[in-house]
Amino acid sequence: MKKSIIIFGTGRAGKTTLAKKLNEELNYSVIGTDEIVTAFERSFLQLGIGKPNDSEKTAANLAPFLAHFLGGLSYRSCCHNGTKYVFEGGYFDLNAMLPVLRMYDEWKDNCLLIGLIYPGQTSGGLFNDIRKFDTEDDWTYNLSDNELRSHVDHCIEYSRNFYNKYQKHNPVIYDVSKNREQVLNKIINDIENDLI
């Protein structure tokens, strides 16, 4: 059975790329948390979502909304002619979302959690990869070297702590340290063939 999907994980692991592939190849509708955060930031800055708050505070403040939104879509999926959604972005605080999601019995049966991490990557290797493969569409493209190094260090730390922080939610975790494109294609295949 085709489920809605939450793609979460560390920065520059391929969340947006995977969501685009799911849209193009399996007809998923994509909902990006970056756009949701921007909308809250521009409309309700007093809620503490978006700048100047850090990403962890933004994720915690956004958690109740995202959980109700996801729960509502899971509950009403039959009313959407079977449309399935892929949520992607870096603002999922699943630990804060869980108490709200428990109000929606359907979400667990209708939602798949996919985590993208790179535990085998080093800070220097990730920095070089980002500089090598960045395009103007990537948000890291215009960062200074110092800004990017700070971001890379945070991402490496997040990736290392991922298992301990989220294992209780039973996500399906994929290591994109090497051959990222092949791993993303494997995920598409696994979803298409109901292997996860």
Key attributes of the depicted protein:
alpha/beta; globular; 53% helix; single chain; five-stranded parallel sheet; 8 helices; 196 residues
Q: Indicate the structural class.
A: alpha/beta
The ordered H/E elements are EHEHHEHHEHHEH
Strand coverage percent? 5-15%
Q: Helicity range of the residues?
A: 40-55%
Gross morphology is: globular
Q: Describe the sheet with the most strands.
A: 5 strands, parallel
How far from one another are the termini?
A: 10 Å
Number of strands: 5
Tally of DSSP helical segments: 8
Average pLDDT works out at 88
Task: Please specify the SSE layout and strand pairing.
Blueprint: E1 4-9, H1 15-26, E2 29-32, H2 33-43, H3 55-75, E3 85-88, H4 94-101, H5 106-110, E4 111-117, H6 123-133, H7 145-166, E5 172-175, H8 180-192
Parallel strand pairs: 1-3, 1-4, 2-3, 4-5
Would you mind describing this structure in some detail?
- The chain has 196 residues and is an alpha/beta fold.
- It contains 8 helices and 5 strands; from the N terminus they run βαβααβααβααβα.
- It has helices spanning 15-26, 33-43, 55-75, 94-101, 106-110, 123-133, 145-166, 180-192, and strands spanning 4-9, 29-32, 85-88, 111-117, 172-175.
- It has a 5-stranded parallel sheet, sandwiched between helices.
- Helix 6 (123-133) crosses helix 7 (145-166).
- The longest helix has 22 residues, at 145-166.
- The protein is globular.
- The model has no long low-confidence stretch (mean pLDDT 88).
